[in-house]
């Protein structure tokens, strides 16, 4: 009898799950991807500004994993035959904004944590004598701590506040003192359970990465990362349902029943645009399937799990999120910018802008066109600072950018704002243990996938979706 699988969530984790399901199961298996919005890809969303391709979400992916092998994102690119479209950023230095000026980003750190504190120059000074060998590993087996707690204890506050915090803020929009070491820096967590000093643990993690000097660290696709989502969806052969949310999940004698239906829309707001297989104005309906991959955020996952797996629902439902906004500016041709790929801003600087990418320089855009800058605004706990209309955020971003680089900037010829409300998970220490408990409590035929569970970044999401597909495929073939 033909099997049917539902993937709830059409971001890259859900799409990677659909493709892996296609590879693992008989050709007649029906795979349905339910995406509540009107478009696939989640935070893989390619936009345009003044005729230039500019990402509205994720900008690139890591080329290698923490073990030195190619990342899951690169493996997916190869699986889809897109190797010829791989592009890499130029080798242009980055900077930190400190005290109203830009200083070079120290080289050789591990997400901002140095293996040699003497190499930080004017950026930060480590507390003397703190990183002493006490005759035992930094962490006990299985112990997880906040990144900031470990680094403050060993190097002092300045290294965290001026270097680690802005680095983690650029990835997670979170604070080092609240982010799990196991999730944010897994390679350092592993070596910290062996090494007796933080400097030795950092060097061991860097050596274990297997990265070859000179090879590209990041990659993207010519034409934008939306291509990755589209190609994955096509290769999966899945039926795509857009604009029709899954409202409930219930057991049946042979599998699972999904209750589908439109979300009620508050007055003054528009419903999401519907795709070719959207629910339109139809009322609630159901779909019976043999297995389900939940590839949505933690709270929707917890809501769907509550009637069928209460312990799993409770374990995942408490995950917090940070909201951010991206502002893209097309400045007039010839607008002077520093010879940098961009810069990061520590929270202590007090700006709304936490990072800037000089797209024109970083991605080698043609000379003579507009000067494109993409700015990231907002950190965890600062949601109220984003509660302004687009025009206010654009002007604030332009003004702060000018102050940070030391000169007033002209008004942009074009601009846009992309808001990601509740877009970035905030992994508190102990996240992996909670996740393991949640997965152990899942009923057979249900799996979790995505950034909420297995880490931000395209490779982590791809690997998470593939693992979920493998898990439910085993139950269907049992």
Give an overview in words.
The longest helix has 20 residues, at 458-477. The chain is an alpha+beta fold. The protein has helices at residues 12-24, 72-79, 147-155, 157-172, 181-184, 186-192, 198-208, 226-236, 298-305, 310-317, 359-362, 390-405, 431-440, 451-454, 458-477; strands at residues 4-8, 30-35, 46-49, 52-55, 61-62, 86-87, 94-98, 101-104, 109-110, 113-114, 218-221, 239-242, 246-251, 256-260, 285-289, 291-294, 320-331, 342-344, 353-358, 371-377, 414-426, 446-448. The chain has a seven-stranded mixed beta sheet. The protein has a five-stranded parallel beta sheet with strand order 12-2-1-16-22, with helices on one face. It folds into three domains: 4-45 and 223-319 and 427-477, FAD/NAD(P)-binding domain; 47-65 and 217-221 and 320-425, Alpha-Beta Complex (Polyamine Oxidase, Chain A, domain 2); 106-206, protoporphyrinogen ix oxidase, domain 3, CATH 1.10.3110.10. The two termini are 14 Å apart.
How are the SSEs ordered, and which strands pair?
Blueprint: E1 4-8, H1 12-24, E2 30-35, E3 46-49, E4 52-55, E5 61-62, H2 72-79, E6 86-87, E7 94-98, E8 101-104, E9 109-110, E10 113-114, H3 147-155, H4 157-172, H5 181-184, H6 186-192, H7 198-208, E11 218-221, H8 226-236, E12 239-242, E13 246-251, E14 256-260, E15 285-289, E16 291-294, H9 298-305, H10 310-317, E17 320-331, E18 342-344, E19 353-358, H11 359-362, E20 371-377, H12 390-405, E21 414-426, H13 431-440, E22 446-448, H14 451-454, H15 458-477
Parallel strand pairs: 1-2, 1-16, 2-12, 7-18, 16-22
Antiparallel strand pairs: 3-4, 5-11, 6-11, 7-8, 9-10, 13-14, 14-15, 17-20, 17-21, 18-19, 19-20
Helix pairs in contact: 1-8, 1-15, 2-15, 3-4, 6-7, 9-10, 10-13
